[in-house]
Design goal:
The structure holds two protein chains of two kinds.
Chain A: H1 2-12, E1 24-27, E2 36-40, H2 43-52, E3 58-63, H3 70-76, H4 81-91, H5 93-96, E4 101-104, H6 114-121, E5 124-127, H7 135-140, H8 156-174, H9 176-182, H10 184-204, H11 213-235, H12 240-260, H13 271-277, E6 284-286, H14 296-300, E7 306-312, E8 315-320, H15 331-335, E9 341-343
Parallel strand pairs in A: 2-3, 2-4, 4-5
Antiparallel strand pairs in A: 1-3, 6-9, 7-8
Helix pairs in contact in A: 8-10, 9-10, 10-11, 10-12, 11-12
Chain B: H1 4-12, H2 17-24, H3 29-39, E1 45-49, H4 55-62, E2 66-71, H5 74-86, E3 93-97, H6 103-106, E4 112-118, H7 126-139, E5 140-153, H8 157-181, H9 188-208, E6 214-215, H10 216-222, E7 227-235, E8 241-248
Parallel strand pairs in B: 1-2, 1-4, 2-3, 4-5, 5-6
Antiparallel strand pairs in B: 5-8, 7-8
The chains are: A alpha/beta, B alpha/beta.
């Protein structure tokens, strides 16, 4: 009951942190060689992981990260190496297992490197799959990742879920305007319009023409208006002025949905974080001369930007093959052991001129 | 003394950290620093955990102490070393980017005469706090002192509620101020727009990551057996900010 209530609350208020106590969770009956997984102290993340790992035997470390999920936390600077150090020291995990290997969620790659963890706390780390549902298969396969496990997928369930979460954030932020300008009826229309256009935008995004999401939102407005008109009709007799105000509200709601869209999908960098909090844009490339072909960038990239290229029979390097897909998470930049991955927007280091692709 | 979210807002722009800290302690932080500096005799080896922008470390070094300053935020550590070298104190202030949670591997037994935890304890979880206090006991020399400055609230429920109600507006004002200040856009209209639109969310975030103020009695109870509170100095109206001088018991 409590869990269902939390689910609903956290679905609608997804945009604020949901902290839970950082702690060690023992799942099943782990032994001294059992895997040690790490996640953040977001209440939703922890509950979902516990659900996905119900039949496993392992230790789960919940690291302090301000109640923010792994992906946002690692890019936004909340899920840090310090949080992992803290939970290793306070949980007593060092007395419970003989090995010193952590399994990290792959999406924390922008913030945490195994090298630094070894240096600072003596634990090594490897990246597990992106999705919690893949963890049992990953553990059964002897901790081998398949390429599908390392990529973000945006299934229809996720799309509906995120569209509701996005609607929640828009409604909480903006519903005060229709309420004060036109009253409670307008508020209800606004709420309905936000839900309608958000769901359309998330579910049908790739099929809507245009590239900018704010442009796409005009199409969703055109679709949601006829859907909402009968609803408004049942409340008020549909006069021209009512229809006009409904159209205005729907247009506004659709536009807000379009501009918020990028922050609520895993594929786009949130434009808001750039505008408001000054996150710098990145333009990632690989210096072929420095690349050793170690494949790490390909594994940590959540959107599969990189492709291998065989230069000589014995030498393989990676190139930036799909720059348009890049989400600017900087995982490759942080993880590359030879600093072959570079940000073209940053000041080019002297001597680095030959960039391939 | 403040929520994690609030600290983020400060730490993103360390230059504003001092101002924010003054705001949230109602200007008392300078008095606290002065009092701490007076408690540390010349020539002592001091560890400043959570040095922030390094005001206290430099103050101590100016008075003749040898300071080891650590902070988990890399930019804070940079600012501390910049401040120390600008005052010509880079020899007596050594700065490391470390968290308090690395004390077990970084410092020797009985290495310091004084350890300072200024506005650090309330940033930690209960487990972290107990761990750090045990480490402080270990790294202190016999008769060394632990100087612990923070905002404390009364333990009795009614008093605590009254205290929180009184403090709430100040915390909230400081939080909103720093949130709006930390926005990178320089256009005042965008700032106003964001402030207006984000206000409901900021309020929710503030309530979720509520300011963590530690009851004083809780700290006294969670001290390891080798440490004992020798003196408590209260600052400000109602004495919500306190400096605890904690001694390491010999033997």
């Amino acid at each position: 009951m409590r869990s269902v209530l939390l689910d609903v609350l956290q679905l609608f208020f997804r945009m604020v942190p949901h902290p839970t106590r950082p702690r060690l969770i023992v799942i099943g009956k782990p032994g001294r060689g059992s895997p040690v997984l790490v996640t953040t102290n977001s209440s939703l993340t922890v509950r979902r992981l516990e659900g996905a790992l119900r039949s496993e035997s392992l230790y789960l470390l919940v690291a302090p990260a301000g109640g923010i999920n792994v992906w946002c936390g690692s890019v936004g600077g909340h899920f840090t190496i310090e949080g992992i150090i803290s939970i290793i020291k306070t949980s007593g995990i060092q007395q419970l297992v003989d090995h010193r290997r952590l399994i990290l969620p792959q999406l924390c790659a922008p913030a945490i490197t195994s090298k630094e963890l070894i240096k600072r706390v003596g634990w090594s780390a490897q990246f597990g799959p992106v999705r919690a549902a893949d963890i049992p298969a990953y553990l059964r396969n002897g901790r081998k990742l398949t390429p599908a496990m390392t990529e973000i997928q945006y299934s229809i369930n996720d799309r509906v879920e995120m569209s509701i979460a996005m609607s929640g954030s828009i409604i909480v932020r903006f519903s005060i305007f229709p309420l004060f300008l036109w009253g409670i009826g307008a508020l209800l229309q606004f709420v309905a319009a936000v839900f309608c256009s958000s769901i359309l935008l998330h579910v049908l995004n790739e099929r809507i023409p245009g590239s900018a999401n704010t442009r796409k939102s005009f199409y969703t407005c055109a679709v949601s208006l006829p859907l909402l008109a009968p609803l408004a009709w049942s409340v008020n007799p549909l006069s021209l002025s009512h229809l006009l105000s409904l159209a205005t509200i729907t247009l506004g709601a659709s536009y807000l949905a379009g501009s918020a869209y990028s922050g609520y999908t895993p594929f786009k960098q949130c434009s808001y974080s750039k505008q408001v909090f000054g996150y710098k844009p990145l333009k990632i490339d690989i210096v072929a001369d420095d690349c050793t072909g170690c494949t790490l960038c390909e594994w940590v990239c959540p959107v599969n930007c990189f492709d291998p290229v065989v230069l000589q029979p014995t030498r393989k390097v990676f190139v930036m093959a799909r720059a348009a897909d890049c989400v600017e998470c900087a995982a490759c930049l942080v993880q590359c052991p030879t600093n072959a991955v570079v940000d073209l927007f940053a000041d080019a280091a002297p001597g680095r001129t030959a960039c391939c692709s | 003394m403040s929520s994690i979210v609030l600290m983020r807002a400060f730490e993103n722009i360390p230059g504003r950290y001092d101002l924010g800290m003054r705001l949230i302690t109602l200007g008392l932080i300078d008095f606290v620093h002065k009092k701490i500096a007076e408690s540390v005799p010349q020539g002592w080896d001091v560890l400043d955990i959570g040095c922030g922008t390094g005001k206290l470390s430099v103050l101590l070094a100016n008075r003749g102490a040898t300071v080891t300053a650590i902070d988990k935020c890399p930019r804070m550590a940079e600012m501390t070393s910049a401040r120390a070298s600008s005052e010509g104190l880079s020899k007596s202030v050594s700065v490391h980017q470390k968290t308090a949670m690395e004390a077990d591997t970084s410092f020797e037994n009985a290495q310091f005469e004084a350890v300072i935890l200024s506005l650090v304890i309330s940033e930690l979880t209960i487990d972290e706090r107990n761990w750090v206090l045990r480490q402080c006991e270990r790294i202190l020399k016999p008769c060394g002192i632990l100087l612990l400055a923070d905002e404390f609230c009364p333990e009795s429920f009614i008093k605590r509620m009254a205290f929180l109600v009184l403090r709430f507006p100040f915390h909230l004002a400081a939080y909103l101020y720093t949130q709006i200040k930390s926005m990178m856009t320089s256009n005042i209209w965008w700032k106003l727009y964001y402030a207006l639109v984000e206000l409901p969310l900021m309020l929710i975030s503030f309530l979720v990551g509520a300011p963590m103020t530690v009851p004083l009695e809780q700290i006294e109870k969670s001290l390891p057996t080798g440490l004992r509170v020798a003196e408590a100095v209260a600052f400000g109206v109602g004495g919500s900010i306190r400096l605890l001088k904690i001694e390491k018991i010999q033997g």
